[in-house]
Amino acid sequence: xxxxxxxxLLLAVYIIAALLASxxxxxxxxxxxxxxxxxxxxxxxxxxxxxxxxxxxxxxxENLYQIWPNEHWDQFKYSPTFAAAMWPIAKLPDFVGLCxxxxxxxxxxxxxxxxxxxSPQATFIAAWLVFKDQLTSLQNAQSNSLVAALMxxxxxxxxxxxxxxxxxxxxxxxxxxxFGIGVAILWIVFxxxxxxxxxxxxxxxxxxxxxxxLTSPQNLWQQYQNxxxxxxxxxxxxEGISVMGILHAWFGLSGHKTVTMLIGGxxxxxxxxxxxxxxxxxxxxxxLASTLIWVVLFNHRAESATFVIATTGVAIWFVxxxxxxxNLALAILxxxxxxxxxxxxxxxxxxxxxxxxYHLKALPSLLVWLKLQLELWFxxxxxQQSSDTESAVTPTLLQRAA
Length: 402
Hints:
The protein is an all-alpha fold and 402 residues long. 62% of the residues lie in helices and 1% in strands. The protein is built from 17 helices and two strands. A two-stranded antiparallel sheet has the order 1-2.
């Protein structure tokens, strides 16, 4: 066994990286955020402060979605349920809470990758491929690693005939970041569809009402109204590092976000008409990878820290298919451009004048996603999997009849 394939090493690297990211941000000096006319000084772990303070604001009945310039920069944009979930950790010292938050996100993603029907070797490759983007998310104290993990676990639990666990994972991902619900499109591929829908409705309802442990029904209703109003108001204001951003930067096309998202959604859903392939392991893994990439590429709020979700999709695609020169080149391009485009190792001039203005961080994921759509419609391999594919995936979990 090669050194990089030792499970203890991978686990240690993920935990140490999470702790180092937490420590460096906690010990760093205050940072100035915002434009010159609205500067705010806040901690380098600003996102964690937003999350934990949201729990405190919910408990005191204050509007979660107003601006709190004396506490942190930017606005809380998650659900009241997420705020309630952060309330217990808000009681801890910041350093302890930040470390727990980041370690939980790192381990959740690693656990989810291991739960997939992949061989140990494929799991290790996938985990190393996503490591840099995962570190970027942790350095920003973001929730994206956790969202990626919950989306994967939703599919794994459906596959293992555990609809209640799948419903809880899907509802949690939705209440953390709305686009986590995107993985629900894979519901139709698995058996027990009616039970899965009923459990999902129950999970969404119960978790949606969970904040009542901290606040009144009237205040919770108002918080949800404020949340949806905030999401509605911010939609026109950003294109993100996304397909919409690329279309604007490269071709001058703007103002077509809804149309672009609808076209992307139709392309994402179209392969589901191939009902006969629902029992095919390769097909299911490809659908999961496609969904993980799609929720970032067509997200008008996608930022650098969000790309751990897309890179996870790229990694699943890469390790579940035969390794070709083109696939290897796309995987390497993803690691370089997505993982290091905003890194100190990348020259500042290149970042400011090439990578950032043209949204090149999103380009490798887009190329993989387009290639993946072709593979979903025109499989490169015959129905019976080749020996190369069999060595990359374990044909035991996803081959049940739909």
